[in-house]
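hey so i finally got around to running both of the ones u sent me last week. sorry it took forever, my laptop kept dying halfway thru and i had to restart like 3 times lol. anyway pasting them below in the order u listed, first the sequence line then the structure token line for each. didnt double check formatting much so if smth looks off just lmk and ill redo it

first one:
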Amino acid sequence: MFRSLRLALVAATALSAFPAVAKDVAPADVLATYQDVAAAAYADSLAGAKALKVAVDALVAKPSDETLAAARKAWIAARNPYQQTEAYRFGNAIVDDWEGKVNAWPLDEGLIDYVDTASYGDSSEENAFFVANVIANPTLKVGGVEIDAREITPALLAEKLQEAGEVEANVATGYHAIEFLLWGQDLNGTKAGAGNRPATDFDIAKCTGGNCERRIAYLKAATDLLISDLEEMAKAWAPGGAARMELKAKGEAGGLATILTGMGSLSYGELAGERMKLGLMLNDPEEEHDCFSDNTHMSHYNDVIGIRNVYFGTYGGKVVGASLADLVKAKDPKLAEEMQAKLDKTLAAFEALKTRAETVEAYDQMIGEGNKDGNAVVQAAIDALVDQTKSIERVVATLGLEAIAFEGSDSLDNPTAVFQ
């Protein structure tokens, strides 16, 4: 499986100079808040990755059920702030070009480590690296390409293995590569249970799964690389950083269009479509975002929180400032009420999904075939996202911006194509 190709986004500009809508609400202030929210969220993401490294080091030093559980808990905690940054992806080229290093999915995990070939398969016509298993093979010879993997380093993962063979499913870096290493494959399908890798897979003295030293090296290299990649983006959104400069160059109208592009594209094509509707249509647990850990409900929930953050100009009590919501309210109070109501309805739908995942069944079970109640909860969340996107489109028009081509998805726009 591959990530869908994104639709090209139309660069939105003002039809005329952006008017002052109220003495206390200025587009420049809105954009300043937007940048501050990004800086805070990426800083928290970086802090989470560093905490994950501490837990990984503890696991490696003393492999046990307890230290493995702590590392998994640290991974889940690290995901929360990162997922709230995804509303910055689609309008900011600097983010979208970088994002695949840290959050690419789905992945053909056989590139990294051993897999259950009975469920995973032992070959792929589309991917020569499908079962390359770098952890077991210090030298890889695939499709006429030879890779020296004797030393597993961040550079090997990023430069030689990430998208090896120009196949997007060859994900060697980022959160999901680490997730696979900590949990292993989820072999439960749409039945209860996540991945269940034993702690002894990291125990050199009592090694299971083989190649424990190399597995440890891979886990440490991937974690170090995640930190360095997040350092890059945290720096980009710090005062004077490259992301801020890129946004400034667009002007006020272009900056506002960037905010709305991120909101609309994440809401519609990416989250409602590729991450949710597609999996629901196929009843396929492999189409859930955090498929090894069964943490998908939290990743989806935090995407919704991230959309709210950029619209309301807030982040976790750390940032509160002038917002897009303020601009809309000044221009069209009724639309402002509509937009807030739609966002609140979406939040309620995802809170219901989150509660069900925590008390009844995991997300991969919800999308299972024949699960009427679970399917309905997921569909209600999808419907809310689609509906709020219509109001986001109205905001674009109300603020006098050119139309924006939000990311689409065949699962929403052309469902028959999914089964072809």
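and the second one:
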Amino acid sequence: MSLTDPFTICLICIIGLALLGLPIGHAMIAGSIVYLFAAGLDMGTAAEQLLNGMYTSYILLAVPLFILSAEIMNSGSMTERLLMFCNALVGRFRGGLALVNVVQSIIFAGMSGSAIADAAGVGKMMQKMMTDGDRYPASFAAALTAATAVIGPIIPPSIPIVLYALVSGASIGYLFLAGMVPGLLMGLMQMALVVMTAKRRNFPVEKPVPARALPGITLRALPALMMPVILLGGIYSGVTTPTEAAAIAAAYAFLISAIVYRTVTLRGTYQTLLSSARTTASIGMLIAGALVFNYVITVENIPRTLSAFLQGFELSPIMFLIIVNILLLVLGCLLEGTTIILIVLPVLIPTAQVLGIDLVHFGIICVVNIMIGLITPPYGLLLFIMTNIGQVSLRSLVREITPFLIAMLVCLAIITFRPDLVLFLPRFFGYQG
């Protein structure tokens, strides 16, 4: 590969533009157009690939709809009522608010589908609750909030899983099912770690919620608690597609907030739609750039070349998965998760198929890796978000989050070496993989 090779020029263009501050989606589109020009191909192919990819992929509609449902929840009072319910369940134990933080992430995982949305929305509220009155160190509260937010995109619904389904062709429904056990396992490991830390550091015990108040708290939270039931029930019963279920989730969140809880105003609705549109546009440009760049990768025959190269080493499926884990963990420290899914995984998926690795199992491994990357120093995105929200230093945050990071790596190792644990629920519901 020489410096005058069209693909080399394309990569230099993308990296150079990204370093100059251009969003990576725009940089990929520009680099791909330069490639088409240098290779003597029709530059209109870039627009064709972009339009075909964006307008023929029905699955992509789920992304803005999940984003909208999360924004509606965060703008209404659904989050406050769910937090009260979580506090009633586990708040009475030592380190109760820390346990509430974990439990709310497990519950909210079935609603927003985004780690960043969970951290910026509910996570901000949890940070304030935990640090109020100096109950918990601010750095510990911020670290726990970042760690628990990672659960969101593993337990369905999940925007990263939707994007993986787009590039792999695997069933979203079975991918959603496959994420449940790993997500719950991660949540249980975090709760165990919180319990041990609470005893060692003598975290406070919250005032128990009287038993007579539990029915009322549960009843007030019930409409919000029904959201994941309706969402996932529609998908797995076959009544709705995942995209239709995402639309129902957004509509349900709005109706509950507006009619039942009566916390939605016209101004609030406008701000919610505006915020959702901005987030969707940001992700949409990244997807558009990836679609065009993936065409370049296909023309260059890179997936097949890499597959043949790796087969030359006679790797076993386990060795390949270990290499993928290391690669994605390193990339997760440096790149945004959506970029990894849309650019890196399409190159790795053909090799996984040749080695006989189940694509549903492979997808969950990849998503867990990418989520861990969000809290991995030095450039984990959630680390920067929580240093801003918690007003803590990056050094203190990294020190507090390290035990949770180790626990997640243990969870990653378990699901890598025990595929039956990941595929148990999909197979129960008829998956043949």
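quick thing i noticed on the 2nd:
Residues 42-428 form one domain.
anyway thats it, ttyl
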